[in-house]
Amino acid sequence: TMLQRWLPHTASAPMDAGVAGNDDATASAAPASDGFPQLEEAPPLLDYNALNDLSGGDEAETSAVLRDFLDATAQDLAQLAQAREDGDIPAIARQAHKIKGAARMVGAVELGEAAAALEAHGHGGDWAAILPLAADLATAAQRLRLHADAEYPLA
């Protein structure tokens, strides 16, 4: 349809996707990206094994580790935003590297991948890619915060 031509993400998944007993439901439920990165399947938000390694598997400690990480990441993102406003590409790459390392340590997979992409384009001086990748990084951080709020609500 005309709508799907201009908004391909509105295309519906195959009818049998998600039907009980259909082993291919997961694979066929995600539409092909066809060159649209926003349609690609996102990496997992968290690697719970890495997070549990840090917290010893204790839920309260896991929540504390994740919240400390998110608070530190918010500060890092603020510094990244300032570097972006200043047009300081080397500082953007440094901040992305810092976020990437911390994200990988706690198992924040999606955030780590977004930071790695931003870092790579920062080192390459690719300003045109930096702006959308910085937005992707901020989105990944927000998704993780929302997930943490849902999984580990504050008492």
Characterization of this structure:
With 155 residues, the protein is an all-alpha fold. It has helices spanning 2-6, 25-29, 48-55, 59-86, 89-106, 109-123, 127-151.
Write a brief caption for the model.
This protein is mostly helical and 155 residues long. The chain has helices at residues 2-6, 25-29, 48-55, 59-86, 89-106, 109-123, 127-151.
Provide the structure class: mainly alpha
The total beta strand count reads 0
Q: What Rg is obtained from the alpha carbons, in whole angstroms?
A: 18 Å
Query: What is the H/E string?
Result: HHHHHHH
Describe the SSE topology.
Layout: H1 2-6, H2 25-29, H3 48-55, H4 59-86, H5 89-106, H6 109-123, H7 127-151
Helix pairs in contact: 3-4, 4-5, 4-7, 5-6, 6-7
Provide keyphrases for this structure.
mainly alpha, 7 helices, 155 residues
